[in-house]
Amino acid sequence: MSPADRFEDYGPPLRVEGGLRARSTRGAIGQSWWSRRFVEVLESFALGSRLTRGRAYARRGQVLRLDVSPGTVTAEVQGSRPRPYPVRIGLAAYPQETWRRIEAELAGQAFFSARLLAGDLPAELEELFIEAGAPLFPAAIGELDQNCGCPDFAVPCKHLAATFYLLAEAFDADPFHLLHWRGRSRAELLDRLRTLRGAGDVDGTGGPATDHSGRGDADAGPESATGATNGVPVVGAARALAGLPAIEPDAELDRFWLAPVALPDRPPTLATGPELLLRQLGPPGAAVGGPGLAERLRRAYREFSRGEAAPPREFSGGEAASPREFGRSEAAPLREADGGER
């Protein structure tokens, strides 16, 4: 086939009904940290206008199908020809021994287990995978094996780019698609975490593990403080508890309601000024006494805070003021100025 024949029917894409349309209609694609991170990685490869055209394809609904499996993403994208183009994006899936090491780290830290079991990927997960030597995201464009059935020589073409953007939104809808692409499905990972945490086998080897206190056997020696008990690595919260003396269960029950440290004779109190309420409420209106009322209340609160009641003369000019008269004096001049009535 000559180059001219290769592109003779190359033109605007055919309209698609019922395609997978990106939820984002403008701006960046991706809402969660993991989908945004995936898009950032792609855009860091300096792919230029090919990604822009692919984003337009994704928003027009040109992607007909998208499937994620370990190591492979497959899709069908409708272009200008009657037959949709088959698309394949490969990314290395990690072997079983790598996943067992990662699962042991995840199960050993309650934070990760709780978030994953709740269907969420914490941002700290990316660092955990990097430390395990198994990054979640590709570091270079060469790590992605990209294939499209279109006649375009560019890699990625707009059909591949559209698949990338729809894949990012698939990660938004279900973050476990990202882990599935790397070799572990949602069901497999969560079942493994439940098993490891339920059995206390946080090293993932099936051998003996530390107990729930993180202290291992009662015969454990100084090696517990260095991060291992009987050859089993201490992970997660057990690192903070390693090396503490073993306590019998009966003794732990007896001490359950005791404070870990001695309590003070009297609980601490928050020192606040007696005028805090007045400062929070602001000056009262003229109808109830205005600034004059606030000043009288301020003097009263000061007296009350000293445990003494102020003498009536201080507030009423010689006579005990009734509650009605207490806030009336400031408003009286206003009523006289208005002719005596409002």
In short:
With 342 residues, this protein is α+β, with helices and mostly antiparallel strands. It is built from 16 helices and 6 strands. A 4-stranded antiparallel beta sheet has the order 1-2-3-4. The protein has a two-stranded antiparallel sheet with strand order 5-6.
Describe this protein's structure:
- The chain is an alpha+beta fold and 342 residues long.
- The protein has helices spanning 3-6, 33-43, 49-60, 96-107, 110-117, 124-131, 158-173, 176-181, 186-199, 238-241, 249-254, 276-281, 290-305, 312-316, 323-326, 332-337, and strands at 63-69, 72-77, 85-90, 145-148, 228-229, 232-233.
- The strands form two sheets. The chain has a four-stranded antiparallel beta sheet with strand order 1-2-3-4. It has a two-stranded antiparallel ribbon with strand order 5-6.
- Helix 2 packs antiparallel against helix 7, helix 3 crosses helix 7 (158-173) and helix 4 (96-107) crosses helix 9 (186-199).
- The termini are far apart.
Low-pLDDT windows of residues: 1-8, 201-232, 314-342
* Spatial extent as radius of gyration: 35 Å
Q: What is the helix/strand order?
A: HHHEEEHHHEHHHEEHHHHHHH
Mean pLDDT: 74
The 3D shape can be described as flat
Biggest sheet descriptor: 4 strands, antiparallel
Tell how many strands the DSSP assignment holds. Answer: 6
Percent strand:
5-15%
Distance from N terminus to C terminus (CA atoms, Å) equals: 98 Å
Content-based structural category:
alpha+beta
Number of H- or I-type helical stretches: 16
Helical coverage, percent range:
40-55%
Within the largest sheet, what's the order of strands? Answer: 1-2-3-4
